[in-house]
Amino acid sequence: MPYTTTLKSIASYLPQKCVPNAYFESFLETNDAWITQRTGIKTRYFAEKSELSSDLGFKAADIALKRANLAPKDIDLLLCATLSPDFFGMPSTACIIASKLGITDVPAFDVVAACTGFIYLLSVAKSYIESGMYRNILLVCAEKSSAVLDFQDRGTCILFGDGAGALVVSRGEFVESSLDSKDLKSGIKDVHIGANGDFASLLYTPRLSLDSNVLDSSALQNSQKMIMKGNEVFKIAVRTIANEAKNILESNGLSVENIAYFIPHQANIRIIDSVAKSLNFPREKLILTVQKYGNTGAASIPMAICDAMQEGKFKKGDLLLLDSFGSGFTWGSALIYADFV
């Protein structure tokens, strides 16, 4: 590990349309009290029809670049995580965001890990930076989840919102070995990721079969709506997120007391509360935005970090624990320092 990582900046972007729980009352058997009690969500934001995930990602990325005092030409690699890509299969949303930013002739690709996408991006960026291959990497998580929701399915459409988060990861100090970096309070300290495709049928968006008429736009539209078996996902998510957090803390010789803030994926307040209770995390160490934004997929954690930063909660050197779970199933945890303050 010749180089360390530095988190240069973080940013987020929300579309303008705020959608309260009451919005769903006219066409679903639900109300504000029911949604709040079961999810903790009060509002979420939906993009306009003309807005794409790449538009949201571009705006967050542009802010992150400015905060890092970097120009598009300074970026060596752009990575994007999304469960709601602009195009079906290709091209990648990363390529579209790069084009909108004016970033050319450098690699850009998507990482498909659903709500765990941000943790997966951190893992990839950490490896590239520490190897010395790249100097500045732009991570973008962008979700127009509303485009893949079935608004007749009460179990999914009330949960998700649109938004984007972006982070600049840069090359830090040169170190002779991992032992030399042991006491450095900077960048990405550790990342754990995992997956198990045996549970793919519990949370997915269908696609057309290979022998279907892909030019039939109505069939394509109807095939791309999210399907989730909520009770099964809930149980596995709580167990997996809690185990992931315990594992990364233990492997780094840390405890809850060493963590300034715990920032889990913002999917459902009941999941978050169950995980926090099992880990003995006090409420004051939790970062919560699910009540404002709902589940914003891969963008959930960077948006939550950005909110807390703007509220002045972090100080430089704070150690943050991130933890997520998503379709695949995928999962991951990370320990990062608040360099971006």
From TrEMBL:
Q: Which SUPFAM superfamilies match?
A: Thiolase-like
Q: Which keywords appear in this protein's UniProt record, sorted alphabetically?
A: Acyltransferase, Cytoplasm, Fatty acid biosynthesis, Fatty acid metabolism, Lipid biosynthesis, Lipid metabolism, Multifunctional enzyme, Transferase
Q: Which InterPro entries match?
A: ACP_syn_III_C, ACP_syn_III_N, FabH, Thiolase-like
Where in the cell is the protein located?
Cytoplasm
> Which transformation does this protein catalyse, written as a reaction?
malonyl-[ACP] + acetyl-CoA + H(+) = 3-oxobutanoyl-[ACP] + CO2 + CoA
Locate the Beta-ketoacyl-[acyl-carrier-protein] synthase III N-terminal domain: which residues?
A: 109-173
Which Enzyme Commission number(s) are on file for it?
2.3.1.180
- The domain of life for this entry's organism is Bacteria
Pathway(s): Lipid metabolism; fatty acid biosynthesis
Beta-ketoacyl-[acyl-carrier-protein] synthase III C-terminal domain residues are 249-336
**Keyword Protein biosynthesis annotated:** no
* Matching Gene3D superfamilies: 3.40.47.10
Q: Which family does it belong to?
A: Belongs to the thiolase-like superfamily. FabH family.
In the record's own words, the domains note is:
The last Arg residue of the ACP-binding site is essential for the weak association between ACP/AcpP and FabH.
Descriptive protein name: Beta-ketoacyl-[acyl-carrier-protein] synthase III
- Annotated organism of origin: Helicobacter saguini
